[in-house]
Specification:
Shape of chain B: elongated
CATH superfamily of chain B: Nucleic acid-binding proteins
Distance between the termini of chain B: 47 Å
Strand order of the largest sheet of chain A: 8-7-5-3-2-1-16-17
Strand content of chain A: 15-25%
Order of helices and strands of chain B: EEEEEH
Structural class of chain A: alpha/beta
CATH architecture of chain B: Beta Barrel
Oligomer: heterodimer
Distance between the termini of chain A: 34 Å
Radius of gyration of chain A: 21 Å
Shape of chain A: globular
Number of helices of chain B: 1
Number of helices of chain A: 13
Largest sheet of chain A: 8 strands, mixed
Largest interface: A-B, 45 and 45 residues
Strand order of the largest sheet of chain B: 3-2-1-4-5
CATH class of chain B: Mainly Beta
Number of domains of chain B: 1
Helix content of chain A: 25-40%
Chain lengths: 360, 95
């Protein structure tokens, strides 16, 4: 335990030395958990391998920007864990901008126009195509890659999500995409090698994933999730963060820290941020976990919003439409909702139910 | 995003998040809409195409577009089949 805290404690000292340069020392590997908002994209860079897992959100162009900044010219393996738009959003741009040697997909045929565009982009590229399955092992340069999911190709969108365990020397990373509890249970029951030093939390830290039994099987030293600031889904969920807190696992998020980098020499690893900003554990950086007894305006459901006085179905719909355009900054932003003037907003404040995470 | 005036819009359910919110991709891929699950037809699943009745940026009605769903499914299936042919031609030896 002492060693773990030393590892994270070293961050402040080392980030000034490390954050300035992107050139890897011989024998080192870095994993970049890119800050791509409410989406996911992760780059594994090391001796003989450049692997990109997922490609951020539709409507953005940050992934290509990150790769260019890191002077990536070719990608050995491009894994698309599953075909949701927050994971394949910029896959076309990646395929059109970089020489990609091999693409992995789950085999699930998702009938969206975006997914069809990704298939077109792979077809017009020279990339080799593969649908991996549980139990397969591959070697890319000095990295061993174990496929832990799917057990069955293509049958169900969620169950077919690709999960890989990447091992560099003595250090193991687990990348779960949006694997949910059912897949977690399957992986445990198959007695697959799940232990990992660094766990990327499934589904952006949602309660649909990271069950206690899975966390106990993985036994992570460090957990990292990718989520957007004030995202509409309330990710990461407090249940998951509480579990990690009980298990004493330092947890970092891209919403709190921006792009997070884990660097390893194969024997030990350190965690730091791309910008040189201090690395915040999620418990320190969030202004407070969502209060289950209150209603968080940016993440509450249609039904939950109606617990607030003066808010019925129509105004709840308006709030949801409003926050699609811009996250509410405080309860006072309810002034943009029809019929909510100063008086009613004051009454809502007095009721004490409504709040905006980070504004209090 | 907001769409003004009443109109019909074609969109697909990209995903249903946490069993509460449907994320819809508009056909022109110009944006996405997040709507409560109550606002899409019962039985909606990922990959289902819908015709949305929009009014002042809000979804006021939605119906399944089975024909569109089937059309895209068929095209996606054919394109994956081409990729499976590429896969069958032999993989690079990584084992």
């Amino acid at each position: 335990m002492g060693r773990k805290w030393l590892r994270h404690g070293l961050v402040v000292l080392l980030l000034f030395m490390l954050a300035t340069g992107i050139t890897l020392a011989s024998g080192e590997m870095r994993v970049y958990y890119f800050d791509v908002g409410q989406a996911e994209s992760t780059l594994l860079l090391g001796p003989g391998f450049t692997i990109l897992i997922d490609a951020g959100n539709l409507g953005e162009n940050d992934v290509v920007g990150y790769l260019q900044k890191l002077q990536v010219s070719a990608i050995d393996l491009f894994i698309l864990t599953h075909p949701h738009a927050d994971h394949i959003g910029q896959a076309v741009a990646v395929l059109d901008s970089f020489a990609v040697d091999e693409v992995w997909m789950s085999g699930y045929e998702h009938p969206t126009a975006l997914f069809e565009d990704v298939l077109d982009a792979i077809l017009r590229s020279d990339a080799y195509y593969y649908e991996p399955q549980t139990g397969e092992k591959f070697t890319f340069g000095e990295l061993d890659l174990y496929v832990l999911n799917p057990a069955e190709i293509g049958s169900n969108l969620h169950a077919s999500n690709i999960v890989v365990r990447a091992v560099y020397g003595d250090i193991a990373f687990l990348f779960t995409g949006d694997a949910e509890r059912r897949s977690e249970r399957d992986m445990i029951q198959q007695e697959l090698p799940l232990t990992a030093d660094v766990l990327q939390l499934g589904h952006h830290g949602s309660r649909t994933s990271s069950s206690l039994e899975f966390l106990l099987a993985v036994r992570p030293e460090t957990a990292i999730y990718s989520a957007g600031v004030n995202n509409s889904f309330g990710h990461p969920h407090s249940e998951v963060l509480n579990r990690l807190k009980i298990l004493d696992v330092p947890t970092y998020g891209t919403d709190c820290n921006g792009t997070i980098i884990v660097q390893t020499d194969g024997q030990d690893y350190i965690v730091y941020t791309e910008t040189g900003m201090p690395l915040w554990e999620v418990g320190e950086c969030l202004a407070g976990l969502p209060d289950p007894n209150r209603v968080e305006l940016n993440t509450a459901s249609f039904t939950e919003l109606q617990r607030i006085m003066h808010i019925g179905p129509e105004r709840a719909r308006e709030i949801i439409a409003l926050r699609q355009v811009h996250a509410l900054r405080s309860v006072d932003d309810l002034k943009w909702v029809s019929g909510l003037g100063v008086q009613r907003i004051e009454e809502i404040k007095e009721q004490g139910l409504a709040y905006v995470k980070g504004s209090e | 995003m907001r769409i003004s005036d009443k109109q019909w819009v074609s969109a697909v359910i990209d995903r249903i998040v946490d069993g509460m919110t449907a994320v819809l991709l508009l056909e022109d891929q110009e944006g996405e809409l997040l709507v409560p699950l109550e606002d899409v037809p019962p039985g909606s699943v990922d990959g289902q195409w819908l015709l949305l009745e929009m009014e002042d940026g809000l979804v006021v009605g939605a119906t399944f577009d089975e024909q569109k769903t089937q059309e895209v499914k068929e095209r996606v299936g054919k394109k994956r089949a081409l990729l499976l042919e590429r896969m069958a031609r032999g993989r690079r030896d990584r084992s």
